[in-house]
Amino acid sequence: MKREVSWILKEKFNDNPNGQFKKDRKRLKKGEPVDYIIGFKEFLGCRIDLSKKPLIPRPETEFWVQKVIQEIYYKCDDRQNYSIRVLDMFAGSGCIGIAILKHLPNAKVVFADNSKKFLEQIKINCKINKIPKNRYKIIQSDVFSNITFTSILQSIEVNVKYDYIFANPPYIATTTLLRRKLRKGKGKNEIQESVLKYEPHSALFGGKDGLFYIRKFLAKAKNFLKPSGRIFMEFDSLQKKEIENLLEELKYKNWDFHKDQYRKSRYLVIVI
Question: b vs e for 112-126, b when ≥16 Cβ sit within 10 Å of the residue's Cβ?
């Protein structure tokens, strides 16, 4: 906790404590995540505001998104007029799409999320990171419910097929939560109390087995990709076999599972 207190003092109060600092220390003692108290999180060189309490960006997500951005960059770096279309599904804070816009100058991004509160959070973060409005579009969509192929809005071709789709869906199984309650939170791989108490359950839990949104997403995702397009999706390492079975059932042909910095299977790459 000493490290977190020092971080709050430096990042939020510029090493000048006041009455609010004492209140923030109390918030920290009660278990509130330090990132919510500070009010933002750094993600691949982007400042991600957390004022609307979206899911806090994780280092595992930052790790794989950085690798994918680097791969895309080197693929299209020598093509001055090459524009890529990206869909950031389950966008939350917008951290993934904003990092793409920051590091890939030829990218245009459509952010999609079902939460009005998180859509407002994305607007805030695009403004903070000085993303030109003609490079992105924010839409409310329950997975692909509002993604179609018919119109052009604000210079962003929302309703076209995409070069890349990024997805970080809610994937924690509710049975994990049940186990945690039965074991009083003492299991080695259980969810932290602060996560359960403060972070949005809508961005965490994906049904009994954690695959509810993953099934919905993968059932339609390939229909929204250009030929040779790619899907990048985060998941829980324990779901690897079930996801592989699902991919076979849905007639996907070409995919690979990749590990995070902790050597756990963390994200899926599908090539259409």
Answer: bbbbeebbebbbbbb
